[in-house]
Request: fold
Amino acid sequence: MRQIALLPSGCLLGSQNTILYYCDDYILYASSLAVYVLNPKTFQVEKILTNTQKAITSISVSPLSKDILAVSTSDGAVTTWNISDEQIISRANLNQSVSVAFDPFNQNICAIISLVNVRLLLW
Reply:
């Protein structure tokens, strides 16, 4: 089977958060329920990362390691992935809609912002 077109599914048009990321190694695009990993030279989908039941609210790539991705969802789940291995590193559930961002100086810390009861958590 050969990919002939890229048709984004479940595009989050109203999202204020990061749902697209680009670097020399890959392009990450978050649709409603999955993160697509594309080759930036060919635009071919190489991997699909999915393990969510609710809409993705944001994605964040570690500033110190391009292989570490954090994904947050509207049901409060925050999942960190190893992109190369397509493996989940860790998962937390806060039972409310959240957004996530990596600390720019420490790849082991994520800031999680609750979108319901406005508060900041470090994970």
